[in-house]
Amino acid sequence: MDYTKVKLPTHVAIIVDGNGRWATNQGLNRSAGHKEGFLNLKKLTKYIFNKGVSYISAYLFSTENFKRSKVEVAYIMNLLTDKLNEILEFCHEEKIKAVFSGRVTHMSDKVIKTMEKLTEETKNYEGKTFNICFGYGSHAEIIDATKKIVNDVNNNVLNINEIDESIFNRYLYQELPPIDLLIRTGGEQRLSNFMLWQLSYAELYFTKTYFPDFKEEDFDKAIYEYSSRDRRFGGINYED
Ligand code: FPP
After folding, report:
1. Does pTM top 0.70 for this prediction?
2. pLDDT tens for each residue of 96-145
3. Centre of ligand 1 from the C-alpha of residue 42, in Å
4. Å from CA of 95 to ligand 1 middle
5. Residue 124 Ramachandran class (φ > 0 left, ψ -120 to 50 alpha, else beta)
6. Residues paired with 12 in a beta bridge
7. What is the pLDDT of residues 200-219, one digit of tens each?
8. Domains of the chain by range and CATH?
9. Phi, psi of 17 (to 5 degrees)
């Protein structure tokens, strides 16, 4: 696809879904699906950034995912720690700044240290920000932001009359531009407590394709669809 002829989103978000079903369909265990999902995420991230998108947010583990079997939770957590060097190498090669969104309450010290190392080592890269939503829930994010705001108001760091959308955005886990395009793989058509604040005017793209099968050409299709949509942000397009 000719990317010079399409409208490009600044911030793309992906709800990674269908890893488990992909694996079951292949007669494999669910963990094999997450492994394949990880490999696909690397390839896709590289492709999306190189097409000119500046921000990618990926929903890799939700606050609710902790309810899954111990084996599955441990597998996903270990994937992050085991692949740390591979992820670091990838970020350095592609000059990607990795940031994390989520609560670390139920994470082990090893996982927390891994997240800190990734953030610290890539913090000076500009232009490609990969927001990894891990232990993430949007309600929790909004509550956590509210608590930080109340704290700053109580300590006279922030004046209550100053609070507006842009100030509130600054108190979220990461200060990011709004999401332009959300892609959800795996067939469900819901937001599942993902970035509700940041998605307010996003275009939504749902596909039945399981994440491990969602390839570069599938992303092109999503961009083509996005490009053809008329974004009015509540206003009227007078050219119509
Ligand atoms: C959703 O599929 C996927 C997840 C809950 C995990 C996503 C994790 C990765 C892509 C790899 C992790 C990468 C890092 C860097 C830690 P699902 O299990 O809900 O699939 P299903 O709906 O078919 O069961």
Report:
1. yes
2. 999 999 999 989 999 999 999 999 999 999 999 999 999 999 999 999 99
3. 13
4. 24
5. alpha
6. 56, 181
7. 999 999 999 999 999 999 99
8. 8-227 (3.40.1180.10)
9. -140, 150
**Ligand 1, atom 22: closest residue by C-alpha:** 18
Name the residue with the closest Cα to ligand 1, atom 7.
60
Q: Which parts of 29-176 fold into alpha helices (H)?
A: 30-50, 70-82, 84-94, 109-122, 138-154, 165-170
- The answer to whether 122 touches 98, Cβ cutoff 8 Å, is yes
Phi, psi of 180 (to 5 degrees): -90, -40
Residues with CB under 6 A from ligand 1: 16-21, 34, 37-38, 41, 60-61, 65, 76, 79-80, 186
The protein residue with its alpha carbon nearest to ligand 1, atom 4, reads 60
Q: How far is the CA of 240 from the centre of ligand 1 (A)?
A: 41
Which two three-digit tokens encode residue 180?
């332009």
Active site residues per annotation: 17, 65
